[in-house]
Amino acid sequence: MTQYESIIGLETHIQLNTQSKIFCSCKADSWLDAPNSNICPVCTGLPGVLPVLNRKAVEKAMLLASAMQAEIQPVSFFDRKNYFYPDLPKGYQISQYDMPLARGGFIDLPIPDSTGQNTTSYTRRIGITKLHLEEDAGKTKNIGGERQIDFNRCGVPLVEMVTGPDLRTAEEAAHYLFRLRQLLRWIDISEGDMEKGHLRCDANVSIRPVGVDYLNPKTEIKNVNSIDAVRDAISKEIERQIRETEAGQKIEAWTLEWDEDRGILKKMRSKETEADYRYFREPDLLALRIDDAWQNEVVSIQPELPLQRRQRFMNAYQLPEYDADILTSEKKLSDFFETATKAYPGDSKKISNWIMNDLLRILKDRNMQIDQMQLQPADLVEIITMVENGLINTSTGKSLIEKVEDSHQRPSEIVRSENLTRVSDESAIISACKEVLAENPTEVASYKAGKPTLMGWFVGQVMRKTKGKTDPEKAKEIFETLLH
Amino acid sequence: MKELTDLTTREASSLLQRGVISSMELTKASLEIIERLEPSIHAFITLTTELALKQARAADLRLKQARQDKSIPLPPLLGIPIVVKDVLCLKGIRCTAGSRILDNFTAPYTASAVQQLLDAGVVILGKTNTDEFAMGSSTENSGFGATKNPWDINRVPGGSSGGSAAAVCARYASLGLGSDTGGSIRQPASFCGLTGLKVTYGRISRYGLIAYGSSLDTVGALARNADDLFLAFKGMAGYDPMDATSSAEPLGDLNLNEQIDIKGLRIGIPKEYFIAGVQAEVNQAVRAAITLLESQGAVVNEVSLPHTAEALPVYYLIAPAEASANLARFDGVRFGLRATQTSMIEMYKQTRGHGFGSEVKRRIMLGTYALSAGYYDAYYGQAQKVRTLIKRDFDAAFQAVDVIAAPVAPSTAFLFGEHTNDPLAMYLEDVFTLPANLAGIPGLAFPTGFDQNNLPIGMQLMGAPYSEGLLLKTCHAYQQMTEHHLKKPALSTLLSTR
Predict the structure, then answer these.
(1) Has residue A387 got a pLDDT over 90?
(2) Is the pLDDT of residue A339 over 80?
(3) Active-site residues of B: which are they?
(4) What domain count does chain B have?
(5) What is the pLDDT of residues A364-374, one digit of tens each?
(6) Of the candidates A73, B37, B259, B356, which lies 20 to 30 Å from B312 by C-alpha distance?
């Protein structure tokens, strides 16, 4: 039987999180706003209006281009993409066609093995063929035989980024989107929420027998709005193409639509009937010129990127890949870890453990972001250090994280005010030890008869009596004196 | 004293500022002549009488305050009545672009160029007629009926800014705003015996100008002389943050009131513009004007603009291509005419089918075709390349000369219906004007004589980018020596009997 491999390319649309729209000063984010409340003559395409390019949108696109190692073009152009649709006010979309903002670029995607332990089994380099800026269209809803149009989204800045046919499995496509979303949030250019349409994805899928290098006709899957849906839709399509090819059918260049509710692909149209967009240069905008000075100024604020930081955490702090992956899932979390670990002389893995086991759980329980917490990296270090020094025990330490959140006090203040320290008053420990000895004459006799291992048992009894607050070393010292 | 409506802008401005006349008097004089002549001329699509009276009152208040307090600046256009071509948006006023598809469209904002004039205190009498979406050379393509030429009401006023031209010619106002994409200010100026300026592309903001060919469109004005035109130009020019293609190039210091010496001015005569097919009287009048300038010390030389013949086909690929996209927004969804149809595609078809006139449809089809896959390279792509060559012709010519002198149009004003069945003959009307639009350079039209039918003949001066000042100065020098621009049509024969 023929072995097949699948060839997948993704076309993503990324909504930039600028304050204003790409060609006018209307508010860009309308998520919580009433329909048609963030509109003006420009973004609704009234007669006589002209677009003026938002510099911030260009800069955010430049940040993405630089993060993808793409080549930012010194000169690029805007073009008109012509088609009629009620939610496209001008009858054309201002986009970039043959001279996009950036070309080339790639991302090295770590693909974990199937054990789920986030250990990389291989790395796949995904090429970026083109990255350009364009404006979003409005939204159309069909309600009760009426077509309702919300123009709020018209003119929201989008970056379209297209990969080469470099992905080989549905899983890889899902990983690409996962890493892209992580990156968008990391460099703060998009909220990257697929469900809210901040990140949209079309997938081009074809199959071929393993070992050949030609490409077969591909189908395009549209309207997939979650990473899981992308994975499911591509898997289904690969299965279909293999099934049809095996049955002697030819794969035709269809456009398919993913029906989320039913989990099936529906044919939208044949490629042959696709519109002619009659692209031509947008005469209302000048060439977009990005000189070195501007590029340097923008790219200079680029932070270390997530996959780089992930690798560095593994190298510099000897963290396991699993830890590094989780700690770099978000920039703020990784910053928290790094600040903490730098302030802590001990093993970084200890900081990692506290963050992964306790902090993340609390964040999840409280539905909070790390930077919304009262607990600062220094506080975590203080807690861990107190545990290490025996001033408090581990469970007290863990409960301190929650107490910092609730009380807004520093950990050491809470320990003091709530008297959470282990008992260090010697007379109190002595009397407790004396009580233990008086209550257990048999064990005292055995110990004296030559059973030194009972020392641990005595210490344990004191700990129980003092509810864990006694320093066990101190108790042992006192027992040795008393039993001498 | 002259009739109020015969005053030039400069004269009226001086009388207003000295308190001799009021803006209200001036405005009422305008409204009165409009009422008498408009039934014969039909220069307006929309009259804004209420607005004009309100603006005149406000202008008089400003004038009074400024006379009392010398620290208040007095813009020269304060209190001056003007007319505005109906392709420029004015907030709260219907704006049709001469198209039935915009019959019910009220502009919710004001064009930047108009706003600058409003800030300077002008009084707007109304919105003037135009060929539909400025596509035409006679106003015969207007969805609201054609405008008549005050020199002969059996003839067209030219177009597309024919409404503004007829209005200024008929003394409705001393200034009229227009737009020029291929000659739409200069050709009607020529037909109506006016001075009309097409500015350098980007010199005046296009924001609020209903787009026809975006890379060619310019806002400009028509007046009775270069001096008045200069006031309008100065009032509208400048960088506008709402128009990315507008320029911040300084205007330069100009004072047209002084005697202007044109000694040593290098005038180029492009041989490609003096060709067979041009009315003999036009040729003679233009030659005579050049000779007069030469007698005052200008140096005249022949120049060549080798790609002139290609300008027409290039223009009729680029302008319709851009128009095909610019006019896509008239879809019945958000404003203007909407046909009541249940299906979306039918709604588009009926709205656009009924809303647009035949010339507009012709250009949309031309443009759509020129941009289509498989044809783009041969048509639109090729046209862009030749456009660059046309630009280079001018660049090279302006190395050798300061201005280029040529006829504005091949003939004087033609009769209604003369070209309506022959689109190509109509397109040839623009053959001498559209190269300046393709090159983005300024062009100035002004009267240099009259033909045997007593119809004005226009000459055109073209200059390097941003040389409007030089063109106006040269024209001003010419007008100091001649009286063609002072001739007035026999308006009394047009008076309607109420």
Answers:
(1) no
(2) yes
(3) 85, 160, 184
(4) 1
(5) 999 999 999 99
(6) B356
- Chain A interface mutation, best of B177, B216, B240, B329, highest count of A Cβ atoms under 10 Å: B329
* Shared domain check, A286 and A343: no
Centre a 10 Å sphere on the Cβ of residue A257 and count the other Cβ atoms it contains: 18
Domain shared by A125 and A153, yes or no: yes
Amino acid type, B266: R
Q: State how far the Cα of A199 lies from the Cα of A189, in Å rounded to an integer.
A: 11
State mean pLDDT over A112-123.
76
Q: Is residue B314 part of a domain?
A: no
Domain span at B448 = 4-272+279-304+392-497
Q: By CA distance, what is A36's nearest residue in B?
A: B334
Burial B364-375 (b: 16+ CB within 10 A, else e): bebbbbbbeeee
Asked if the Cβ–Cβ distance from B207 to A86 is below 8 Å, we say: no
The reply to whether A359 and A431 lie within a common domain is no
Q: How many CB atoms lie within 10 A of CB A417?
A: 10
CB < 8 Å to A92, chain B: 325, 328
Task: Examine the domain organization and report whether A229 and A321 are in the same domain.
Answer: no
A68 three-class SS = coil
A284 part of contact set with chain B, CB < 8 Å: yes
Instruction: Identify the CA nearest to B31 among candidates B83, B77, B75.
Output: B83
| A283: closest CA of chain B, how far (Å) | 5
* Record: contact B334-A89, CB cut-off 8 A: yes
**Same domain flag for A86 and A219:** yes
Q: What is the CATH number of the domain that holds B204?
A: 3.90.1300.10
Q: In chain A, which residue's Cα lies nearest the Cα of B243? A: A50
Residue B383 lies in a domain: no
Interface predicted TM-score (ipTM):
0.96
What pLDDT score was predicted for residue B202? 97
Interface touch A90/B329, C-beta < 8 Å: yes
Using CB atoms, which residue from A52, A84, A276 is nearest to B372?
Answer: A276
Q: Is residue B295 part of a domain?
A: yes
| Domain assignment of residue A400, given as a range | 306-417
Mean pLDDT of B134-153: 97
- Closest Cβ opposite residue B206 in set A50, A53, A147: A50
The verdict on A49 touching B (C-beta cutoff 8 Å) is: yes
Q: If you write DSSP's letter for every residue of B205-228 in order, what string do you get?
A: --TTBPPSSTTT--EEEEESSHHH
So what's the pLDDT on residue B224?
Answer: 98
C-alpha–C-alpha distance, residues A415 and A364, integer Å: 25
Q: Best interface-test mutation with A: which of B240, B331, B377 has the largest number of A CBs within 10 A?
A: B331
Q: Are residues A362 and A439 in the same domain?
A: no
Closest CB to B380: pick one of A48, A53, A280: A280
What mean pLDDT is predicted for residues A290-305? 95
**Number of cross-chain residue pairs from A and B with Cβ atoms under 8 Å apart:** 101
Q: In CATH, what number is assigned to the domain containing residue A457?
A: 1.10.10.410
Last residue of a domain, one of A241, A275, A298: A298
By C-alpha distance, the chain A residue nearest B210 is A48
Instruction: Please calculate the CA angle A279-A281-A285 and round it to the nearest 5 degrees.
Output: 135
Same domain, A435 and A345: no
Residue B329 belongs to some domain of the structure: no
With DSSP H G I counted as helix, E B as strand and the rest as coil, what are the percentages for chain B, rounded to 5? 45, 15, 40
pLDDT at A481 over 90: no
- Asked if A215 has any chain B CB less than 8 Å from its own CB, the reply is no
Q: How is residue B460 written in tokens?
A: 């055109």
The B-side interface with A (CB below 8 A) comprises 87-89, 95, 97, 102, 105, 107-109, 111, 206-211, 214-215, 241-245, 321-322, 324-325, 327-331, 333-335, 344, 348, 368, 371-373, 376, 380
Among B39, B162, B167, B151, which residue's Cα sits nearest to residue B98?
B162
Separation of alpha carbons A347 and A195, rounded Å = 40
A120 and A207 fall within a common domain: yes
